[in-house]
Amino acid sequence: MQPTFKMIDCRNFAPVDVAKGFCHVRKQMVLADGEACEFFEKLPKCKHCLHYLPAERDYLGVCGAVEARPLTYPDLIGVTCEWFAWRPAD
Amino acid sequence: MSKKLSQVLEETGLPLHFQACGVAPEEVVDREIKGEPCPRAKRLRALYYQTLSSATNEFPYWYTRAYMELDSEVPVVRRGLALRCAFSHLTPTIFPGELIVMGKAHYYRGSFPMPWLSEGYYMAKEDELYQAALEKGSASADEVSRFGTGGGNVTQSFGNVVSIAGKFGMRQEEVPAMLKVARAWVGKSVDDLGHKYEQMVPGYDIKEAIMKAVVCMFDSGYTLPQGREVTNYYYPLQYGFDGLVEMAREKKNQVAGKPGGDGMTGMNRLYNYEAVIHVLEGIQKWILNYAREARRLEASEKDPAQRKEYQDIAGCLEWIAHHPPRTFREALQLCWTIHVATLNEDAISGMSPGRLGQVLFPWFEQDIAAGRVTEAEVLELLECQRVKFTCLDCFASTGVVGGVLSGNTFNNLSLGGLTADGAPACNRLEELIIQAAINCVSTQPTLSVLYDDKLPEPFLLKAVACVKTGAGYPAFMNNRVAIEFLLSQYGAEGMSLPEARAVAIGGCLETSPCSWMPLTLNSTTYLIPGGSGQPTSVGVHFISLPKILELVLFDGVDQRTGIRVFSTHGKQLASYEELFEQVKAYFARAVEVLSLTNNIQHDIWRKNNMAIFNSLLKPDCLEVGHLINELGYRYNATHNVETCGTINLVNSLAALKKLVYTDRAVTLDELREALREDFGFKAAAEVGSYSLADQEKKEGGDRYDHIHHLCLTAPKYGNDDPYVDAILKEWEAWLCAMCHDYESLNAAPYYPCQISVSTHAPMGAATIATPDGRLAGTTFADASMSAYPGTDRNGPYALFTSATCWDHSRSQNSQLNFKIHPSAVQGVEGARKLLDLTRAYMRKGGFHIQYNIVDSKMLRDAQRIPEEYRDLVVRVAGFTQYWVEIGKPIQDEVIARTEYEGV
Q1: B336-381 tens-digit pLDDT
Q2: With an 8 Å Cβ cutoff, is B888 touching chain A?
Q3: Among the listed residues B781, B659, B776, B649, the one whose alpha carbon sits nearest the alpha carbon of residue B713
Q4: Fewest 10 Å CB contacts: which of B15, B101, B363, B846?
Q5: How many structural domains does chain A have?
Q6: Do A49 and A70 fall within a single domain?
């Protein structure tokens, strides 16, 4: 079953604030937690990264891209991350 | 039903008048001048109105990740690398319609916490260290501070959004990581380390008691360690970022391994330049990330006009990431980028752009002459820039952001003043800046006119027209007084008269040292002004003067908490002179302890958290190779002692002198009892209003009516009454001299800073009734030269005479807020009257005056139905704020201010 994505997970979503953002495709304000639409394009986030290792606690993980294995979290945006690589399943 | 104070006074033949020089019309009168932004700015501002204040963990995450991996690195390089990592990983967001881009975070109104300064926020609810911190003084100030409940403040959690500190919203999915990041700083933050060492100061227990009793609000070393200063855009504008990197590399080669005659810090220059390079390269990457985002949007955009705008944005950013700007737009974008970068480097309020119209004039002049830009296009850019400035938020504690700043960030743009050779410095671009502020009323940047008699009448009338919008700006600062202060304070560091003329206002109204720099554009050289001093409002933060008096009257014990703050003075206070001397003695003891502890906090800050980017912008850091922590700035004598409640202190001393010591109408013990019993009134919090007039009597609370009546009718400041003015004059003479007796960590004398910002509300909330008749918990008089509401009855010129009974040039500032009904300054004649009024105060030697042109009835209406007043702005202290984002105590205080119906 395909996971359900939210607007906040979309590359076309420009976050105005914590609750809403602007959709660059539909040219309108949308809710951050609204369900993704047909134009959905996945935003690089740690949870989609090859190097991401989930931790036991919710919303926490580990970055396996570097030897120190620092803390990270699934929703950290990765568009500027030099280590980001799409996980094959993603 | 309980009687209100206003009713009680009416019945005793002493009505409270909050109107002076006439009677306001019965109907609500709107402001006369109303501007209209260009459609683009209007859309962007409308978006701001819908936007919630939003915080993200992105910058803290990347900063902390890099910092913790570098624990054996030289501190300045470690910080430089952490900043580089954080800047280069920020997610770029560009919103359609924007011409000026880039922001603190990827939200439209974004910000983020800095746990390396203080991690207390993160720990707020679940960390045991925070629970221990509740025993520390800072929590007391938070308890008495209030945010506004409307506008963009996220006062409560909802959905997947967590409210932090009653103002900022953070996505739930970021919160656990935020807490983890915060824990990494426990015991390492400036707050924690500073606390560890400040406890070694003899008398530290007094400091703890001072903070718990809210005698002082806030340490500056870990709350807002920088700001209240003027930034300097010169170096990137002249050399570009590539040029600066190259300069730092060359300097690095010159100094590597060489002490240069300085065995203490000479060797540090190598590491400093290395850190500078890291930060500059991180900022270049940050800019280029935005450029890449603009290219991405350009590629997918179907609308040709919007596509072209993305293309232009990308082109602009790709250029300024490396090179000096070629056009006005590039220069404006670069200045904005520099400004945001500075704000991201540290927790800062009051990083003022300074005389931006004079800084940008070379590009404006040459672009206009060459036909590269029109004035209409410049105006549109300036209006868009106003919206960007307004979107700035500062993430700090409830007490600091709500209680001191009222959510404002104090980006003060100065206008006018003089050139280095003493000619009027205003120009056509500054007139457009004023026009943009008229068209696009918003809170940022606020404007300040450096008033000089030489400034041309049309320019000053333009400024007055802007005041008449009711936006509260520009404020008028006395250029001559400011220059005299600068020469007095910075003469020892070599400041000359021409250099002093570069002055601009940092933060609300902090007179700040600046310098002229030679900028060459297309073979023409201009002298442009820019900041060259350290933060000018750090050190001993706001001391509550009425609270000092309370402690004197009650032998060192705070009456709200029962805490002993100072050791007993054991005096009978048998004479007025003995009383006044004890006020000075307790105040001096507070300054002594707080200056020592704050010196330690700032020293910890500069050891591990020094400004690198802000330093490289300021003369003469790049030349000498020393940053702020090694006094690389041209002017370093910048620490101050801030006070609050001056007029309540002065009025109270006048009441004590007359009632207790001269007329002997009441004994000191009787008065003490009346104060403790709040003259028979209910607590302000119980009444739900912090304005004097609204306070209600307790059932059977008539016992102190006579004493209260005597206190209220005692002589009051603001009426040209020598009885009171002599007390103010003596206090100011003593205060301005005593500050010089304390030494900042830069081994320079402190100076007084006399502004209230918003502290008069929380400090009033923490103070019992005062001998001037003010009731417990109610707000103090605002500013430092404003009369207590309703007590200035002899017109504005009497107020001016009272306010200027002392020499304002001996203080960094003074502040006078003046509320005028819109009908009093209508038309051309009204504008001239307002200018004449301003001129009169300046010529008398007043440092600062600013106006609220507003009908108090409108404010009451806005308090009742805030949803209809989202765009209403008022002048609070040295800043303008949206009505709906101000806490109720300050709203009540602004409503209560004396409203002048004629000038």
Answers
A1: 999 999 999 999 999 999 999 999 999 999 999 999 999 999 999 9
A2: no
A3: B659
A4: B15
A5: 2
A6: yes
